[in-house]
Amino acid sequence: MKKNVWIINHYAGGMLFDQGGRHYNFAKYLKQQADYEPVIFCASSEHGKPRQYFDTQDLWQKHTSEEIGVPWVFVRARTYVGNGKQRVLNMIDFYKNVKRAAKKYTANHEKPDVIYASSPHPLTLVAGIQLAKYYRVKCICEVRDLWPESLIVYGLLKRNSLLAKALYAGEKWIYKKADALIFTMAGGCDYIVERGWDRKIPHSKVHNINNGVDLEVFDYNLNHYHHEDSDLDNPDVFKVVYAGSIRKANNLGLLLDSAKRVRNPRIRFLIWGDGDDLPFLRQRVLDEHIENVTFKGRVEKKYVPSIVSRADLNFIDGNYSDLFRFGISLNKLFDYFAAGKPVIMPMKANYNPVQEFSCGLTAEREELLPQLLEQAATLSEEEYQRMCLNARKAAEEYDFKNLTQKLIQILES
Predict the structure, then answer these.
(1) 113 and 148 co-located in one domain
(2) Of 210, 202, 146, nearest to 178 (Cα)?
(3) Does a cis peptide bond (omega within 30 degrees of 0) precede residue 346?
(4) How many CB atoms within 10 Å of residue 202?
(5) Helical packing angle, 278-287 and 252-261, nearest 10°
(6) Do residues 179 and 138 lie in contact, with contact meaning Cβ atoms separated by under 8 Å?
(7) Same domain, 393 and 404
(8) Does residue 224 sit in the same domain as residue 350?
(9) CA distance 404 to 22
(10) Judging by DSSP bridges, how do beta strands 293-297 and 313-315 pair with one another?
(11) Domain span at residue 38?
């Protein structure tokens, strides 16, 4: 008998149109691999944009993915831009309306057998717990961002403020009430111990499922969508590739700094993507005469496998955060693993998959990046190929087919 699993993610609307993303892939493989019928509840508003996915004032609308046969329930929430008052009100809209919409949804659809509620913000988890109580089913709470810890680390909230204390109390309540906890970062138990909550929240209910890659889709795109580029096909250069968003958070200024310092003339930096930091970085390349960096522009996602698979080295970084002591869950990293090429990561982080699988080079200090790049360009063929094989092994470990099996074990425990 099939089980109905409700996946509640405020920001999952775009996954229906992008045909990808964490909960899209979990829904896809829950339906394929097990006796589950997933339903995804999300907000009607586009994340950070002044528009709705659909022009309607209805409390909820159902739209089913033609690709995977999973319904999305879009719950009414106001639009917002930025991180001010309107975004907070948008969160409250979703929190209130998803509970109303869920109860109306079950007037003509089956009730859930289990609820899987995913952050980043905690009100989604509270709604999941309350709906689970109403339907007398289990609620699995997934933590993809630590609130209020993230707000404090990034200087948006003072640790000893009344609001921070209230948010910590709410976070503890969520962790206690959830039937199981999933952290995308591997150090979830470390965080609970650090907060002093481990007596009330046993390690047995804490699980880790990182982000991942859908190898089925990656390999299909690699075989069917070739990206023409003469630099990628040049055997005389050592190609360091970045493919993704170009924003301050991606720390590509560091890559330009390092490009100026490397001495090996074979090393070239090829950057694909777009974002609000791109004009500034382009101007830096011109003003500072950085001749070994080329910006390639934006490409459709289906061409990314063709690009990163022809790199000699794939680059990933992010501005260091104290939160990295609990681990990292960077989406781009798993696409790089799937490419079967070494990864370079000049970023201090615990539970680092690049180190765990020995599939690249890492450093705890950013200023060591030029040395790492020189080292990578002179690896022996044997060592280089070993890293390539290890990268693909890492991708298989983080393939959503395998991650879904971990999720199923938690749903059924």
Answers:
(1) yes
(2) 202
(3) no
(4) 10
(5) 20
(6) yes
(7) no
(8) yes
(9) 10
(10) unpaired
(11) 3-212+400-412
Q: Residue 390: helix, strand or coil by DSSP?
A: helix
Q: Of 76, 70, 3, 1, whose CA–CA distance to 39 is shortest?
A: 70
Q: How many CA atoms lie within 13 A of 255 on its CB side?
A: 33
Non-local (6+) Cβ contacts of 382 within 8 A are: none
Tell me, what amino acid is at 289? H
314 φ, ψ (degrees, to nearest 5): -110, 135
Residue 235 tokens read as: 């055997």
Same-domain status, 380 and 234 = yes
Question: Are both 16 and 122 inside the same structural domain?
Answer: yes
Q: Give me 130's structure tokens.
A: 């309350």
92's CB contacts (< 8 A; 6+ apart) are 123
The pLDDT profile of the chain, 413 residues, written as one tens digit per residue, is 789 999 999 999 999 999 999 999 999 999 999 999 999 999 999 998 999 999 888 999 999 999 999 999 999 999 999 889 999 999 999 999 999 999 999 999 999 999 999 999 999 999 999 999 999 999 999 999 999 999 999 899 999 999 999 999 999 999 999 999 999 999 999 999 999 999 999 999 999 999 999 999 999 999 999 999 999 999 999 999 999 999 998 999 999 999 999 999 999 999 999 999 999 999 999 999 999 999 999 999 999 999 999 999 999 987 788 999 999 999 999 999 999 999 999 988 999 999 999 999 998 888 999 999 999 999 999 999 999 999 999 999 999 999 999 999 999 98
Residues 223, 199 within the same domain: no
Q: What residues does 52 pair with on adjacent strands?
A: 45
Q: Residue 189 is encoded by which pair of tokens?
A: 């138990």
109 and 255 housed in the same domain: no
DSSP string, 121-179: SHHHHHHHHHHHHHHT-EEEEEESS-TTHHHHHTTSS-TTSHHHHHHHHHHHHHHHHSS
The position carrying tokens 């991606």 is 250
CA nearest to 202, candidates 179, 171, 170? 179
Domain count, the chain: 2
Which CATH number covers residue 13?
A: 3.40.50.2000
Q: Could you tell me which residues are beta bridge partners of residue 61?
A: 74
31 and 49 part of one domain: yes
310: amino acid identity, one letter: R
Element (H, E) at 63: strand 60-64
Look up the pTM and report it.
Answer: 0.95
Strand partners, 315: 344
User: Rounded to the nearest 10 degrees, how much is the dihedral formed by the CA atoms of 191, 192, 195, 198?
Assistant: -150
